Amino acid sequence: MTYTGSTPPFGRALCAMVTPFTASGGLDLDGARRLAARLVAEGCDGLVLSGTTGESPTTTDAEKAALIAAVREAVGPGPVIVAGVGTPDTRHTLQLTAAAHEAGADGVLVVTPYYSRPPQDAVEAHFREIADASALPVMLYDIPGRTGTRIEPETLLRLAGHPRIVAVKDCSYDFLAAQKLIAATELAYYAGCDEHDLALYAVGAAGYVSTVANVIPRQLRAVLDAFDAGDTATAARLQRAAVPLVEAMMCAGLPGAVTAKALLDRLDLPAGPVRAPLRAASPRAVDGLLTAYAHATGPTA
């Protein structure tokens, strides 16, 4: 897969899918198949597996590979599967990248090494080593609020020259830098924070990688469709309609994996529990999520 700058390398509307677990905490592959098929049917071009929302820190290497294979079986060859392979260990990341390729992934999502807080030359070397070793296209994941380390704009400018580094999932909250990099490179930018979906798309981003799409995939896809059709007023209205749910799921003190699974459970969709140290949302939090969901899916949405 080669990104030419004219078509998004992974599609436009991507869901950062939860990893369904059974009631006892095991991997629920049947649930993953059913959820993946629903998300694609509801408008997702692709699925990002084993990312932050997919609880990657608490799933094993074998579970990650099994999840890719099960989802590929469920959705077929068309929809894109991007596998989260990022770890704080370059050797481990290389192993997960090779396993993702073998299991059927179309690309890999590589987060900045966390906890050790490497300097920028080490960050760059880490990403280059992953991209050099793999035949899969790479989406860099810039989320300094979790990793403690930014992928600085100058580093991204240099990495943009690598033929297999084609995209960025942007959770930097640096809208100015994102616009400058979109203008200066052929990197496909994907909004990683749902409040930025339309804003980044309007200035040239490729689309989004969305946690909220686990529960409202069709509504978020409609934002991009309206914008592409030239109906910017409708796109803005649809984006605003999603804002209370975005806030409830992503900005109210609970991780997106917790809030997404709480809603999916109440909607009788595959999810199951989160793994410790995460804990289930309280009944009060779930009530608030359901109210926001009703607003996002109501007649004016």
TrEMBL record:
CDD domains: DHDPS (cd00950). Its main location: cytoplasm. The active site is at residues 141, 169. Pyruvate binds at residues 53, 209. Pathway: Amino-acid biosynthesis; L-lysine biosynthesis via DAP pathway; (S)-tetrahydrodipicolinate from L-aspartate: step 3/4. It is an enzyme of class 4 (lyase). Its EC number is 4.3.3.7. One of its GO terms (molecular function) is 4-hydroxy-tetrahydrodipicolinate synthase activity. It catalyses: L-aspartate 4-semialdehyde + pyruvate = (2S,4S)-4-hydroxy-2,3,4,5-tetrahydrodipicolinate + H2O + H(+). The record marks 52, 115 as: Part of a proton relay during catalysis. InterPro entries: Aldolase_TIM, DapA, DapA-like, Schiff_base-form_aldolases_AS, Schiff_base-form_aldolases_CS. Belongs to the DapA family. Homotetramer; dimer of dimers. This is 4-hydroxy-tetrahydrodipicolinate synthase. The lineage of its organism: Bacteria, Bacillati, Actinomycetota, Actinomycetes, Kitasatosporales. The gene is dapA.
